[in-house]
Amino acid sequence: MNKLFGKTQGDKVIWAIVVILSLVSVLAVYSSTGTLAYRMQKGHTEYYLFKQFAELALGILIIYFSHRVNYTVYSRIAVVLFLISIPLLIYTLFFGSNINEANRWIKLPVINLTFQTSDMAKLALFMYISRQLSRKQNVIKDFKKGFLPIIVPVCIICGLIMPANMSTALLLGASCMLLCFIGRVNIKYLLAMAGIGILGIALVVTIVLATGVGGGRAETWKNRIAHFKQTEKTDAPYQVQQAKIAVANGGTFGRGPGNSEQRNFLPHPYSDFIYAIIIEEYGLAGGFLMIAFYMIFLFRSIRIFRRCPYAFGAFLAVGLSFTLVIQAFANMAVNVNLFPVTGVTLPLVSMGGTSIWFTSLAIGIILSVSRNVEETEGRQITADKTTVNTSDAFSPAPAEAVA
């Protein structure tokens, strides 16, 4: 075990945040799944505790093994993953399993595991965009050679995700625009990208309304936006009302672990609305700590971006960190009614299988960049010391020694 920990490298603060969020996840999921265990007739409430613990343990192993891989390998993998993601998203759109009135999942045979293809597509897209930005820096201001090879993949992936999961597509598109801005893409092209996105949304909504592709999600989108715009508390959706009650009950320091009452009334308290349960049990103090953990994670990733000497690693670290943190803040905003209800989960905290594993892979890649940055800086320091010692050997002795 000591040998294993000895090989753990990369940003230690990010490692600490991963462990802390995993512990919070185990406590929050265990507290919020009692009703689910009873409804699903699992026999005992510890079923989901053990399940979540096993998924997080596998996630940490994924982080460990992926951070041991040189991040340049992911540049070659990015193309393959991107090309695989397109047919998988198309298959999911038309033949995916319908869960919670959305075709977002495919069921893997034999192991009977549901797999959300958009999770893999998001990771593949950021790896591919980072690769393209690093390779196109000399022509990044050119529309045909620099901008088109970046915008086309973004439009394809977001367009395929949108019919079944608009919130994920919008967050993904916004994160890609932010990464492109950091990658020095021309501002006027980014504005054009935003305009194309608006037209794309209108087109997708029209197609969904006309064909019913995506499980009839257009009506859900319309209802959520209409409910969010309403000012009367009694007109708010049921889950929003219960989330507000959970937040109000939490007070400053909360009811204490396992003492949530709204977990019995709030739909999906273990996934979409887990942040409301955290506030109810740990109060506003716990809620602010969760925000702080994600912000520290982002700042440490930006630090890796600034220290990385190579463009691909820098874009990879900052791009993946931005998408995880933006997703986290979107989830928390929904829980406190600052954003319309979406199906976005809280990264590394909400209950899940493949979503946790792909989040872990993203964090592992960030740590891989960090590990290589540390090794590069270590070699540079060693080289500088060697140069200094060599120069000292041939330099004249101080005046005091000569005397």
From TrEMBL:
This is Probable peptidoglycan glycosyltransferase FtsW. Keywords: Cell shape, Glycosyltransferase, Membrane, Peptidoglycan synthesis, Transferase, Transmembrane, Transmembrane helix. It comes from Compostibacter hankyongensis. Belongs to the SEDS family. FtsW subfamily. It is an enzyme of class 2 (transferase). Its main location: membrane. It is a multi-pass membrane protein. Its EC number is 2.4.99.28.
